[in-house]
């Protein structure tokens, strides 16, 4: 069972989930726990010989009832591949699964915020290579969301709407745009190739998204990650996080659906580390300008198309 | 993918505030299949009691390996 301790100096919760120390770590391909269970083969997390998308309670949860939730979303029964290589239809179905998990977990009394995310690559701590993401149901509203809600207050309305307006006005960091979704490198990005994929219209959560929204969102996310893979001609590590409204109280009081990517690479073979300034002062120091990395990303996206 | 359904996909979610208590889902008894948007939802439990949910795309274009989906969702 996990435990929370409040770090007074940082003003934030720390989660102690010491059972996770023993979680499965980079198993060989024949023992992937996210593969289907094939006749005569080893038992896996999914006791079926085939499936499309599977969601299950994490065996090594950071949160569990009555203090939240931790789920694994397996994108495919195929071991190889990635979110970028899913078919268009599968990626779109995944958006509906995200929506469903947000709705179900968000309805629970012990979940104040539903965070859907994917860690890709050993550079960001991946322990299983099979294409998958995760869902955490936090029993509190975490600091990043609190900051987004504070930005709403500071900017006098939805911060994501205002920042999108500014990006569309400046244009130089916009990667691509559609009728419903815009992707850009933020004006004050912290990571060299950070990108945000944002719904044009205000949508507090995925529950406010219709089928057309979800279809364009999935297509936009795939366009971006395929561009990432083309950027340095290698599988591109990233952390992908869906941001939306907390599920406590009035969800219309804050949140705007957008997906943020935090890629650790700053060159094909150099990582950005969180070191002195980032950890000790909470201030990122970047070696690149967002306007320049946006140009490189646009070119990579064009190559991947 | 799993065999198709005669039921047209309910792709559009309910309008916010529409008052649909099921949020667009078709209610189902435990062990039965549900629908959510274009998805077929099947709930089960693993041997150790953890929840497992299998989603399949009712539109018959679930992505990879459409040609070997016939056994999807059948116990190993």
Brief summary of the model shown:
The complex is a heterodimer of chains A (305) and B (76). With 305 residues, chain A is α+β, with helices and mostly antiparallel strands.
Helices and strands in order, then pairings?
The complex is a heterodimer of chains A (305) and B (76).
Chain A: E1 3-7, E2 12-16, E3 53-57, E4 69-74, H1 88-106, E5 113-120, E6 132-138, H2 143-155, H3 159-170, E7 174-177, E8 181-184, E9 195-199, H4 211-231, E10 238-243, E11 258-262, E12 265-267, E13 270-271, H5 276-281, H6 290-304
Helix pairs in contact in A: 1-4, 4-6
Chain B: E1 33-36, E2 39-45, E3 51-57
Antiparallel strand pairs in B: 1-2, 2-3
**String of helices and strands of chain A:** EEEEHEEHHEEEHEEEEHH
* Beta-strand content estimate of chain A: 15-25%
Give the class-level CATH name of chain A. Answer: Alpha Beta
Would you report the number of β strands of chain B? Answer: 3
Number of helices of chain B: 0
Q: Taking strands numbered 1, 2, ... along the chain, how are they ordered across the largest sheet of chain B?
A: 1-2-3
Amount of helix of chain A: 25-40%
Alpha carbon gyration radius of chain B: 14 Å
**Biggest interface, chains and residue tallies:** A-B, 39 and 36 residues
**Which strands sit side by side, in order, in the main sheet of chain A?**
3-4-6-5-10-11-9-8-7
Strand content of chain B: 15-25%
Q: Give me the oligomer status.
A: heterodimer
Largest sheet of chain A: 9 strands, antiparallel
Order of helices and strands of chain B: EEE
pLDDT below 50 for ≥5 consecutive residues: which ranges of chain B? 1-30, 63-73
Q: Indicate the CATH architecture of chain A.
A: 2-Layer Sandwich
CATH homologous superfamily heading of chain A:
HIT-like
Account of the protein in words:
The complex is a heterodimer of chains A (305) and B (76). Chain A has 305 residues and is of the alpha+beta class. Chain A has helices at residues 88-106, 143-155, 159-170, 211-231, 276-281, 290-304; strands spanning 3-7, 12-16, 53-57, 69-74, 113-120, 132-138, 174-177, 181-184, 195-199, 238-243, 258-262, 265-267, 270-271. Chain A has six helices and 13 strands. In chain A, strands 3-4-6-5-10-11-9-8-7 form a nine-stranded antiparallel beta sheet, sandwiched between helices. In chain A, strand 1 and strand 2 (12-16) form a beta hairpin. In chain A, helix 1 (88-106) packs across helix 4 (211-231) and helix 4 packs across helix 6. Chain A starts with a strand and ends with a helix. Chain B has 76 residues and is an all-beta fold. In chain B, 0% of the residues lie in helices and 24% in strands. Chain B has no helices and three strands. Chain B has strands spanning 33-36, 39-45, 51-57. Chain B has a three-stranded antiparallel beta sheet with strand order 1-2-3, with no helix packed on it. Chain B is elongated and about 30 Å long. The model of chain B is unreliable at 1-30 and 63-73 (pLDDT under 50). The interface between A and B is large, with 39 and 36 residues.
């Amino acid at each position: 069972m996990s435990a929370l301790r409040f770090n007074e100096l940082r003003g934030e919760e720390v989660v102690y989930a010491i059972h996770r120390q023993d979680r499965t770590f980079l198993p060989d391909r024949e023992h992937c726990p996210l593969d289907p269970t094939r006749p005569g083969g080893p038992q896996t997390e999914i006791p079926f010989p085939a499936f499309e998308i599977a969601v299950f309670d994490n065996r090594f949860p950071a949160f569990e009832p009555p203090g939240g939730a931790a789920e694994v979303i397996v994108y495919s029964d195929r071991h190889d591949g990635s979110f970028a290589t899913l078919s268009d239809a599968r990626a779109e179905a995944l958006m509906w699964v995200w929506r469903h998990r947000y709705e179900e977990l968000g309805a629970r009394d012990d979940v104040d915020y539903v965070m859907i995310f994917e860690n890709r690559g050993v550079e960001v701590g991946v322990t299983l290579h099979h294409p998958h993401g995760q869902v955490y149901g936090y029993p509190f509203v975490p600091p990043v969301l609190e900051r987004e809600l504070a930005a709403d207050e500071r900017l006098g309305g939805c911060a994501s709407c205002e920042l999108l307006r500014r990006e569309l006005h400046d244009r130089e960091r916009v990667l691509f745009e559609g009728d419903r979704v815009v992707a850009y490198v933020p004006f004050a990005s912290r990571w060299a190739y950070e990108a945000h994929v944002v719904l044009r219209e205000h949508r507090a959560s995925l529950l406010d998204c219709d089928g057309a929204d979800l279809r364009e969102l999935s297509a936009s996310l795939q366009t971006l990650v395929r561009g990432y893979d083309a950027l340095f001609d290698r599988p591109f590590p990233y952390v992908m996080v869906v941001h939306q409204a907390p599920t406590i109280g009035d969800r219309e009081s804050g949140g705007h659906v957008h997906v943020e990517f935090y890629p650790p690479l700053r060159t094909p073979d150099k990582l950005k580390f969180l070191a002195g300034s980032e950890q000790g002062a909470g201030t990122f120091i970047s070696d690149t300008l967002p306007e320049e990395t946006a140009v490189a990303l646009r070119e990579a996206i064009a190559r991947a198309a | 993918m799993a065999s198709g359904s005669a039921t047209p996909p309910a792709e559009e979610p309910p309008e916010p505030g529409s008052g649909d208590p099921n949020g667009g889902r078709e209610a189902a008894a435990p062990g039965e299949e549900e629908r959510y948007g274009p998805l077929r939802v099947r709930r089960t439990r693993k041997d150790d009691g953890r929840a497992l949910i299998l989603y399949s795309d009712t539109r018959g274009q679930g992505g990879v390996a459409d040609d070997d989906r016939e056994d999807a969702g059948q116990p190993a």
